[in-house]
Amino acid sequence: MHWKSQISIAVASVSALTAAPSVTFHKDVEPLLQKHCQTCHHPGDIGPMSLMSYREARPWAKAIRSAILQKKMPPWFADPQIGHFANDRALPQSDIDVINAWVESGTREGDPKDAPKALDFTDGWHIGKPDAIVTVPKPFQVPATGTIPYQYLRIPTGFTEDKWVTGIEVRPSNRTVVHHINATTLSPTSPFRKILKEGEYVAIDVEAGHRAQIAAGQEPAMFGRDSDDELLEVYVPGTIAKPLKPGQARLIKAGSDIMLQMHYTTTTGTKAEDTTQVGFVFAGKPPAERVRGALVYNVHFTLPARDNNAKVQARAMLLNDTKLVAMLPHMHVRGKDFEYRAIYPTGETESLLKVSNYDFHWQINYYLAKPKLLPKGTIIECIGHYDNSPNNPDNPDPNVDVHYGEQTWEEMLNGFMEVAIDPVAKVPQVFGPAPTKAAEVKSGGGQ
Fold first, then answer.
1. Phi and psi dihedrals of 411, rounded to 5?
2. Chain centroid to CA 259: how far?
3. Would you put residue 343 in left (φ > 0), alpha (ψ -120 to 50) or beta?
4. What is d(CA 160, CA 67) in angstroms, rounded to the nearest whole number?
5. Confidence of residue 58 (pLDDT cuts 50, 70, 90)
6. Average of per-residue pLDDT across 301-314
7. Directed axis angle between helix 61-69 and helix 93-104, to 10°?
């Protein structure tokens, strides 16, 4: 090595060592925790510990460093080479270096006067203060053990006029017992109004109904496909509700009710209760684009016992030009990876999102930084791989074949999406059946 290079390296090393002690919590680290961590890590939210102050963060300093160096935190699983996302949580290397230097130099607190203004999470809503809140009329009692059928609950909104909504958040009070909650609008003419008594939890064995439909060669009915009922928001572990972009809103028609589909689990082994709320932020004026939910899914598959890389895919074809806003992959505990692909009418294929390390405990809605216009006739293909082997520590039983089912020990391949449409147009069906090659797995359609 040339002597000038050796001197340069020595000087750089000395500079790093002398610079490191200047890194302090309040001046350097606290702004990063606010930007990347405190949204989840504050009292009452999903993070297992609060990182709102030096006193709270200091005992976890080495654990924080380990998590960010291993890219475990903040949770973000999108392949950086595919797509750009508005809610990208991945830490830039410069921020990783600052936190590492803080730990290496002794986790100094520094001058509290250097601290940024504290973030206010007192109301607990990620969408900001709601203009309206719908609360379940009574808590749901979760037993210590056993399987809980899906619970359905119809709650009136009280909206006497059409409401354009820029933010919707489903907020359970006890996240530890919630697998998912779907919030769906029920129009004044919805058939579900006859099935569900207002304000009463109704247990419905959705799985049995779906299996009967599958056995009869039918696709399970998905909300919003053939009616004015519309899936508004999905809560799954790790989700953080995000307001829509300026000029975008969802529509809730006058006189609509909200139906909650609630999947509770008994994984804690103790009795618990949950009181869920749904918050709404209203738009100040009619939007330029209406955002609604869509879904590509598959219910016809088998994951062979002890197979560590079983493949499942689903396909559906866009019936109109459609602007894609966001994608939320959903699998259960055997899920390994998930990819959304667009196969254009020209035959060209593009990967829209690739989640190489799917984590059931951190399910993320990936919002495109720039919504993507997809032409009519584009096939959306969702591809997932599953680990049904003994090497998967979350696998309930590697010695059984696994099929589609609602419970966590069964599996799903659901490609949730949000799309933007003309706000004054009659709402069209988003997807139709896609041509399926003989060699491919039979796939469900979409809504």
1. -140, 165
2. 19
3. beta
4. 48
5. very high
6. 96
7. 150
